[in-house]
């Protein structure tokens, strides 16, 4: 349903070299799939989300590669065709999405603005639809009469998810939709989202730095490091056999609450500067398994059963087998 090929995004700057936040990323998202995208702060997750939605200004940023949604290359569409496609095929819930509501409009008017723009529904049909959606995200339909400031953060974020679903898009990209909320509310929102995703059959790209949360709800997980997808696997496979040294290190950052003794380890060092060219594997300077090739040759993704990993350790294994 979504095919991304060799996507590369550079934020250009008059003051110096640009920042290449997404580096030749390729992946597919099939229908009816919950995909998690994880990685530490600054690795390019939000940039990838914006680039998939064609929200980055082409005059100020360099964007290469293709993003094909339902057979249409987003970067070849006219502005008008893109406007039609937004909300109806693809919608986005942003990092601070709950603050994206217009403070002076009632919730129902914000829903109706989108519906009026993209459909021929009557007012009664629109109100029915809003009520149905608010119930679907476990809000009382009376919330439609409220102004955004009258809702809690969690309620606003539920309303933002309902709004993203208003025209039944095929793909919903959610960028850290629950990061600002407490863990109990966070979990109940992701549980609700996952149930809705299965029930309605759309696909989700759920961006988060919380690998634990993502592993629990996603069908598939993509791990991003320094603008690249270093591992892409079904979630259960990733739990059993994480292969990239970065993914393994990330997993060690989580504690099992049931364990008697817990040893947590951080990841020494820091990610590379995305404003500079990267020689070889971007994780090599922090990787305990790195060897000479890792510092000079960029690792291409290697197929690993139902998944892929971009790491020279597995390329060597493949070569030995063939
Ligand atoms: N508008 C911009 N102009 C220049 N550089 C930018 C811009 N937005 C982001 N960047 C840079 O691009 C890189 C990736 O940023 P991005 O926001 O995509 O990361 P992220 O993975 O979403 O991080 P976080 O988890 O903190 O949200 C960072 O180095 C950031 O400084
Ligand atoms: Mg971000």
What percent of the residues sit in helical stretches (DSSP H or I)? 25-40%
Strand content: 15-25%
Structural class: alpha/beta
Low-confidence stretches: none
Radius of gyration: 21 Å
**Strand order, largest beta sheet:** 6-7-8-3-9-10-12-11
What small molecules does this complex bind? adenosine-5'-triphosphate, magnesium ion
Query: Helix count?
Result: 10
How is this fold's topology laid out?
Blueprint: E1 2-11, E2 19-29, E3 34-38, H1 45-52, E4 61-69, E5 72-73, H2 79-85, E6 90-93, H3 107-118, H4 123-136, H5 153-164, E7 171-175, H6 183-200, E8 203-208, H7 211-217, E9 220-225, E10 228-234, H8 235-240, H9 245-252, E11 302-304, E12 307-309, H10 312-321
Helix pairs in contact: 3-4, 4-5, 5-6
Bound molecules: adenosine-5'-triphosphate (ATP) and magnesium ion (MG).
Question: Could you characterize the architecture of this molecule?
Answer:
A hairpin with a 2-residue loop joins strand 9 (220-225) and strand 10 (228-234). The chain has 322 residues and is of the alpha/beta class. Helix 3 (107-118) crosses helix 4 and helix 4 (123-136) crosses helix 5. It has helices spanning 45-52, 79-85, 107-118, 123-136, 153-164, 183-200, 211-217, 235-240, 245-252, 312-321; strands at residues 2-11, 19-29, 34-38, 61-69, 72-73, 90-93, 171-175, 203-208, 220-225, 228-234, 302-304, 307-309. The strands form two sheets. Strands 6-7-8-3-9-10-12-11 form an eight-stranded mixed sheet, with helices on both faces. Strands 2-1-4-5 form a four-stranded antiparallel sheet, covered by helices on one side. The chain is 32% helix and 22% strand. The protein binds adenosine-5'-triphosphate (ATP) and magnesium ion. The site of adenosine-5'-triphosphate has 13 residues, from strand 2 and helix 1. Residues 11, 19, 21, 39, 41-47, 209, 274 line the site of adenosine-5'-triphosphate.
């Amino acid at each position: 349903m979504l095919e991304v090929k060799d996507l590369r995004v550079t934020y250009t700057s008059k003051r110096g070299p640009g920042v290449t936040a997404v580096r030749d990323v390729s992946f597919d998202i099939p229908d009816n799939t919950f995909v998690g995208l994880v990685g530490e702060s600054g690795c390019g997750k939000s940039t990838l989300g914006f680039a998939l939605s064609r929200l980055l200004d082409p005059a100020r940023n360099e964007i290469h590669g293709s993003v094909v949604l339902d057979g249409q290359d987003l970067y070849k569409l006219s502005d008008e065709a893109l406007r039609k496609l937004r909300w109806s095929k693809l919608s986005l819930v942003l990092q601070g999405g709950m603050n994206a509501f217009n403070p002076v409009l009632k919730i129902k008017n914000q829903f109706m603005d989108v519906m009026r723009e993209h459909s021929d529904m009557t007012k009664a049909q629109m109100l029915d639809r809003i009520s149905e959606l608010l119930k679907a995200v476990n809000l009382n339909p009376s919330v439609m009469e409220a102004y955004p400031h009258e809702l809690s953060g969690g309620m606003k974020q539920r309303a933002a998810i309902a709004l993203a679903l208003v025209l039944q898009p095929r793909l919903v990209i959610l960028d850290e939709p629950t990061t600002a909320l407490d863990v109990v509310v966070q979990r109940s929102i992701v549980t609700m989202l996952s149930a809705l995703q299965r029930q309605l059959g759309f696909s989700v790209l759920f961006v988060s730095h919380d690998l634990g949360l993502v592993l629990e709800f996603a069908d598939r997980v993509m791990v991003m490091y320094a603008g690249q997808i270093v591992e892409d696997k079904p979630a259960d496979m990733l739990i059993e056999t994480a292969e990239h040294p970065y993914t393994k290190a990330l997993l060690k950052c989580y504690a099992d609450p049931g364990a008697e003794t817990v040893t947590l380890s951080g990841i020494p060092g820091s990610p590379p500067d995305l404003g500079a060219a990267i020689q070889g594997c971007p994780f090599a300077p922090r990787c305990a398994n790195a060897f000479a090739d890792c510092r000079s040759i960029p690792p291409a993704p290697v197929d690993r059963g139902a998944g892929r990993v971009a790491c020279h350790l597995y390329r060597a294994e493949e070569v030995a087998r063939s």
